[in-house]
Amino acid sequence: MPENRPALPESVDVPLRGAGWLPHGYHLDAHSHPHGQFVYAAAGVLATTTEQGTWVAPANRLTWTPPGFAHSHRFYGRTDTRVLSVPPELCTQLSKQPSVFAVSPLLREAVLVLTDRTESRPGAHGRLLAVVMDELADTAERSLHLPEPRDDRLRAVTDLLHADPARPATLAELGRAAGAGERTLSRLFHTELGMSFHRWRTTLRIHHALAHLTDGLSVTDTAMVCGWSNPSSFIDAFTEVVGQTPGRYQAELRGRR
Question: Where's the HTH araC/xylS-type domain (predicted)?
Answer without folding.
Answer: 155-252
